[in-house]
Design goal:
It is built from eleven helices and eleven strands. It is an alpha/beta fold. The strands form two sheets. The chain has an eight-stranded mixed sheet. It has a three-stranded parallel sheet with strand order 1-3-2.
Length: 341
Amino acid sequence: MGDACGIGPEIIARAFQRGAAAGAVAVADAAVMRRAAALLPERWPVACVASPRDVAVCPPCCIPVWEPPSLRDPGAPPDALAGLPWGRVEARAGAAAAVCIAAAVACVQRGEGAAIVTAPLHKAALAAAGIDFPGHTEMLQALAAAPGGPLPPVRMMLANDELRVVLVTIHQSLRRAIEAVTYEAVLSTLQMAHASGPARPGQRWRIAVAGLNPHAGEGGLFGDEEQLIIGPAVAAAQAQGLDVHGPYAPDTVFMRARRGEFDVVVAMTHDHGLIPVKYLGVERGVNVTLGLPFVRTSPDHGTAFDIAGQGVADASSLEAAIAWARHASAARPEPGLSGAW
């Protein structure tokens, strides 16, 4: 359900009403979902299920909700989370969001779900709750790791119907992100981007690589990362049979991809890659986590505290994330790869 004080529960309720979430189950607090449903013109009842599998026998025209057993503090009233104020950072909301994420991962690991679609959470609320992860991606990465085993390498892909972008680095300062652009990181990202493409024989994604520096370094005049790191990683990926090209000037490669020359762009840093996608409209974007042993998507926006509780939140991005998750979970080429369009 994401953060109970944000728009996540509202857009979930709206997606069920509009039919986009049919067959899914909300891993959430029932009282929070009832509060969210009350914001919509047509109020749908919440139907609590004992297990995510029970969604198949859930009555129509309702919002099926499964409450993780550890969601509520012992002794807390049933509506404690629903009584939190809209649009405010609350530690209890951050803790509840984390419980729902962990419970959803456990469900798909047990085979009780095909994919996870996460509503927005607030990083400050997570921190206030003592959750030592900067966001969904890093928490899911840790939950997906085998006990005592290494963290699986993951990458963020943001996509809409015009542009797909995969990032080499994610949530860190720009200074540290530049230091994290290594040959191994770039090559691994190219491999994951390739693996997330079409699973049909004879089809693969055409991958463009955006440089790190202005004009992709201009032959070393503006930086040598393209020559020493990114270019060699591209060459290695090509030797492995990947349809990879670049590095190209980052100020023009996204336009080339949008015009159809490439299917996906690999960008070196978070804002470098996400600004072009989000400029096209956050209501159309989908966030996909590559590298997990299950499919995970989310909408391309945050908790929108400024409009939470007003009944005006747009569910389009969540609905696109649900559609992507359905398609990707049905088209995954093999275990361990989060397939995508």
